[in-house]
Write a structure and sequence with these properties.
Layout: H1 2-24, H2 31-35, E1 41-46, H3 52-60, E2 76-80, E3 89-91, H4 92-95, H5 111-114, E4 117-121, E5 131-134, H6 141-144, H7 151-161, E6 164-169, H8 177-185, E7 197-201, H9 210-228, E8 236-238, H10 258-266, H11 272-331, H12 338-342, H13 350-384, H14 395-413, H15 424-447
Parallel strand pairs: 1-5, 1-6, 2-4, 6-7, 7-8
Antiparallel strand pairs: 2-5, 3-4
Helix pairs in contact: 1-11, 1-15, 7-8, 8-9, 11-13, 11-14, 11-15
The structure holds guanosine-5'-triphosphate (GTP) and magnesium ion.
Length: 448
């Protein structure tokens, strides 16, 4: 209840303070709206036959999903409780057209995916406020191409929506884990996404002995440090399904973290708020770097303008004072120059006409040159190496920039001369204030 109240409060605040900023930079801020209206989601992914469906059956308490040794399932199955008056199974074609569900975005992947998308409606109180998604097992890279849709991209889309992602692998096929992980990693918030992924090594009862298990675990850890680029290894749940475990082998003393894993899954709805905050965090950081780059661009624009202005005004004033002296010596016009008039030879306003013409003409020419050459040169110089618009002093910022540089370049490319006067600094302050103030306050509240 308290969480629902907090969610509404966050959403209102975001809509009021942050959404208009996204609009200013022509950036999309709809994912929060659409993705989070539905119930919390747990996504189960991993290589084929890693035991995903077996785990789901165990969590739900019935054999709702088919299991088997060969690649068994090639569909994304959303399992939830939608109420008794809804059909037991809802096909993908209905799901992608229902605006109340968060699956409309999968329409773009075409018929091949739609026919491999299904919602199973079960009778369970627990699943009234939660959905679990079983996914087709990851095959090898060449077979993946035959699915008829971009499996990795679709996996990434599901991962973005999920409040908890369970990444399963079995001791025999740790190799494919790298691809699966990178597919989802890019879609998650850079800073805190690790909380959202649980790593599980399943079917460990199939290891012949403890040294076999340790070897598999070691291989996995090595693979994982390669994937994450980090030396510290996140917790890997070591589990097996006691329902199907090889009973003629004594596995009683085998590590078994199945209960904890299942409890984590049950607790996933509690992660929803964290997910919302992480998503705001990720999107705000993206906006911030675009805003920083735009601020630097306008700063350069104003600096260049001020240089142009100084030279032009200097020239203009020079011509204001001496322009008529030059024309006088060349073509004897005007007969009386401004300086001689001011020296007391009878000043009249007519003496100002030519100097003012020179002054205004120079200023106008200066502006035309700035528009036609100066600003264009600035644009092309900036776009030739946009990365020095922002400081990229750590890996996080580098990744962020890789993701957002295209958007920034598009904005700069489309900017007009007058845009150099836009006040990005004010926007930056608002973003920082939200990140360091409001968002931090909510994170703290959630953790307390
Ligand atoms: N020994 C043992 N067998 C398991 C365990 N978990 C699953 N299995 C078996 O492994 C096979 C594959 O399990 P599934 O649950 O179908 O695997 P999956 O990940 O859903 O596979 P796909 O749907 O093909 O991607 C089945 O025959 C299961 O009975 C386990 O912990 N120990
Ligand atoms: Mg399966």
């Amino acid at each position: 209840m308290l969480e629902a109240k907090m969610q509404t409060e966050i959403q209102n605040k975001v809509n009021k303070k942050i959404a208009p900023l996204f609009a200013k930079y022509d950036m999309d801020f709809t994912s929060l709206e659409s993705g989070m209206k539905w119930k919390p989601i747990v996504l189960i992914i991993g290589n084929y036959s890693s035991g995903k469906s077996t785990l789901i059956n165990e969590i739900i308490g019935t054999d709702i999903q088919r299991t088997g040794q060969a690649p068994t399932d090639d569909a994304f199955t959303i399992i939830t409780s939608e109420g008794r008056n809804r059909p037991e199974e809802v096909p993908g074609s209905t799901l992608i057209n229902d605006d109340l569900l968060p699956f409309v975005k999968f329409k773009k992947y075409g018929e091949k995916l739609t026919s491999h998308l299904i919602l199973k409606n079960i009778d369970s109180q627990l699943f009234e406020n939660m959905a679990i998604i079983d996914s087709p097992g990851m095959l090898d890279a060449t077979t993946e191409k035959d699915r008829g849709y971009d499996y990795m991209e679709v996996l990434g889309e599901f991962a973005k929506m999920a409040d908890l992602i369970v990444l399963m692998f079995d001791p025999h096929k740790a190799g494919t884990i790298k691809e699966t992980y990178s597919a989802i990693r890019n879609t998650l918030p850079e800073k805190s996404g690790e909380d959202r992924i649980i790593f599980v090594m399943s079917r460990i009862d199939e290891c012949d002995n403890i040294s076999d298990l340790v070897r598999s675990y070691g291989t996995l850890c090595w693979n994982m440090s390669q994937m994450t680029g980090r030396k510290d290894i996140p917790h890997i749940y070591l589990t097996y399904s006691s329902n199907v475990a090889n009973s003629d082998k004594s596995v009683d003393w085998w590590p078994q973290e199945r209960t904890e894993l299942i409890e984590k899954v049950y607790a996933a709805p509690g992660l929803r708020l964290n997910h919302i905050l992480e998503d705001i965090d990720r999107q705000l950081n993206e906006l911030q770097i675009v805003c920083e780059a735009s601020a630097e661009f306008t700063h350069r624009g104003r600096k260049l303008f001020s240089k142009f202005a100084k030279v032009t005004i200097g020239l203009g004033l020079g011509l204001f004072c001496f322009g008529d002296v030059i024309t006088n010596s060349l073509i004897s016009l005007p007969r009386q120059t401004l300086i001689s008039a001011l020296r007391g030879e009878g000043f009249s306003f007519m003496n100002l006409v030519l100097p003012l013409f020179f002054l205004c003409g120079t200023l106008a020419i200066g502006m035309v040159i700035f528009n036609a050459f100066g600003f264009k040169q600035l644009l092309s110089n900036t776009l030739a190496d946009s990365s020095d618009l922002v400081s990229l002093d750590n890996e996080y910022r580098k990744n962020l920039w890789r993701k957002m540089s295209g958007k920034t370049e598009e904005l700069i490319q489309n900017s007009k001369v007058k845009d150099i006067w836009l006040g990005h600094t004010g926007n930056l302050t608002k973003i920082r204030r939200f990140l360091e103030g409001d968002l931090k306050k909510y994170y703290d509240k959630l953790r307390s």
